[in-house]
Amino acid sequence: MAPAANRKPKRDSGFGVDAVPDAPGSVDVGTVTAAGREWAVGLLWQNVDNTSKAVAEAKAMAQNSVEGDFYLVRSEGTHQYAVGWRAAGQKAGMPSLAATLGEGRDNLIGVFPVKGGYYFVAIRDGGILATCDKFIADKRDAMDAFNNIYGNAAGWNDAFAPDEFRFAETREVPLDTLLGKKVGPKLVDVRRAGATVKLLGILLIGAAIVGGGLYYWSYLKDQEYQAELARLRSAAVQKLPGKVAEPPPPPPWDGQAYAADFIRSCIDEIGRYPFAVAGWKPTAISCQPSGAGIQVQALMDREGVLSSANWIGASIKTTDFQPQISRPSADKAVAFWPGKPLRRMLADLKTERIAKVQSYLASQFEETMTKLDVSPAGQTDFYISSKFSFRSQLDPREFIFILDKVPGMTMHKVTYEYAANNMAGQWIVEGSFHEAKPVPEGGVKRRPGPAAPNNMQKRS
Length: 460
Known about the structure:
9-stranded antiparallel β-sheet
């Protein structure tokens, strides 16, 4: 019997891609029944930054960034965590189908028939690829999703697809057969995890009452009373006629360069640096925001005992290119120079939700076969921010069409790292995306800005 799939109606994210919606609400994920049990599919996957704090990272993502209801941590293969949603029909204790299929398999790709459609999964170098753990209703969409990944990368140890799809070097294996009796990591309810901590606190208080008498209890109640009194006073002051609360601080994107302008300017300036410097080996060139423009610095190491520092200026300086040169040590040198002023973003940009942007970026970078790393979002009373980075041998300008569609995106650094033979290297791009939170009661709202362009489209 074919595995059953339970799926909520599809909801457009507003970006033209399947994205994590505002919670609560319907999401484009669900559950699949196979091997006699229900499995969670369509989870939001993220690599763990610090394995010793994997659970904390997962809970932070679920609670603060994407308003998830569940999380799980995967230790098999690449260390990852995932976030799920109750609106998708997922439940605490439900195992992840992708994580279970990935146990003992580092490079797996598969599309499997299920009731009402197909289940698609891809695991590369032990890591479950974002947007590649999902139910797909349409046969053609399922074939395209499989081919977009399978047709652009080699080295798959296991490739599964129905014989009727006619993909080369794939085989048809029932999902039940692959699963056997395996059960991978299971979803944990974020609220239950928090309740456990609260229960522990209650038990500790109870122990203190028994051991220390009613004095400690009276002290706690007095502290609660004083805290509530302070809150009421604060609320009353905020609502007094003529009393204006402090306005929110400037947003993180205020006065920062547009992502597209920053990347283009960095590449143009880096291109002015010569490929070779007599007696000196380039190691990396980086570009960062500086004042109204950018600052570029090129690092180099001495090659050979006869190399002279005077050769650097002779090799790189021209009539219209006069970088400064410093010597951190006898065998190292740095050339640095400024770029031209860039356009700046205004404070009143209208941003999108962090979860929607992250899902959009994950989808787009997945299709370029480029790994995107996103850190758990930090937040203040007014703003939420997430950092991202990616590495590629492609010119970073090739990614502008993706990044330029995110309002309020800020760039931190563009770096080119030379390879050992200087014939090829790797680009590293780092930045952040942000969300403006609703202004708390008593705060001063900023003047509304123009609506964010609804042009984040998934490539076909």
